[in-house]
């Protein structure tokens, strides 16, 4: 097995153990701004739903998630293809639209972001040259 396959299998096994607990609210960012969420995306190749536990930082109603392996993280690639997602925080499912910043994507801040959140994304965008990728989950009304 090559290194990338081992890495992918390691994260899949870890996620199978962690995901159910985090979805129920264990480790969610409530009193502290950082904690765990479960991000639910649609697979960019399969179209199947994927649930991924991630470390997140909550600032008001916005949630930041990131990875230092943007080129190998499927969840961030899924967000690029389908930015309408849901995530579990505090045991509740929430609807969001993701704004994704990756190394191979030209950065342009959405006008819909509040100024303080936009300034944070401007700063974080500088790290994409080192392989980092991140997404801001912006709240939306849940589709009926």
Question: What descriptive keywords fit this protein?
Answer:
single chain; 144 residues; Pnp Oxidase, Chain A; six-stranded antiparallel barrel; 3 helices; 6 strands; 28% helix; globular
Give an account of the 3D structure.
The structure is a single chain. This protein has three helices and six strands. By secondary structure, the chain is of the alpha+beta class. Strands 1-2-3-6-5-4 form a six-stranded antiparallel barrel. A hairpin with a 2-residue loop joins β4 (84-89) and β5 (92-101). The longest helix has 21 residues, at 3-23.
Short description:
By secondary structure, the protein is α+β, with helices and mostly antiparallel strands.
Q: Unreliable segments (pLDDT under 50, ≥5 consecutive)?
A: none
CATH architecture: Roll
Q: From the 3D structure, determine the CATH topology.
A: Pnp Oxidase, Chain A
Strand proportion: 25-35%
CATH superfamily: Electron Transport, Fmn-binding Protein, Chain A
N-to-C span: 44 Å
Largest β-sheet summary: 6 strands, antiparallel, barrel
């Amino acid at each position: 097995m090559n290194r990338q396959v081992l890495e992918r299998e390691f994260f899949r096994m870890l996620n199978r153990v962690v995901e159910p607990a985090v979805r129920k609210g264990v480790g969610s960012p409530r009193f502290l701004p950082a904690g765990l969420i479960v991000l639910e995306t649609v697979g960019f190749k399969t179209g199947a739903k994927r649930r991924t536990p991630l470390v997140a930082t909550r600032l008001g109603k916005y949630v930041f998630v990131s990875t230092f392996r943007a080129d190998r993280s499927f969840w961030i690639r899924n967000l690029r293809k389908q930015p309408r997602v849901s995530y579990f925080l505090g045991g509740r499912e929430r609807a969001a639209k993701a704004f994704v910043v990756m190394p191979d994507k030209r950065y342009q801040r959405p006008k819909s972001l509040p100024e303080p959140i936009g300034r944070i994304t401007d700063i974080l965008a500088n790290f994409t040259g080192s392989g980092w990728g991140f997404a801001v989950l912006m709240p939306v009304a849940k589709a009926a």
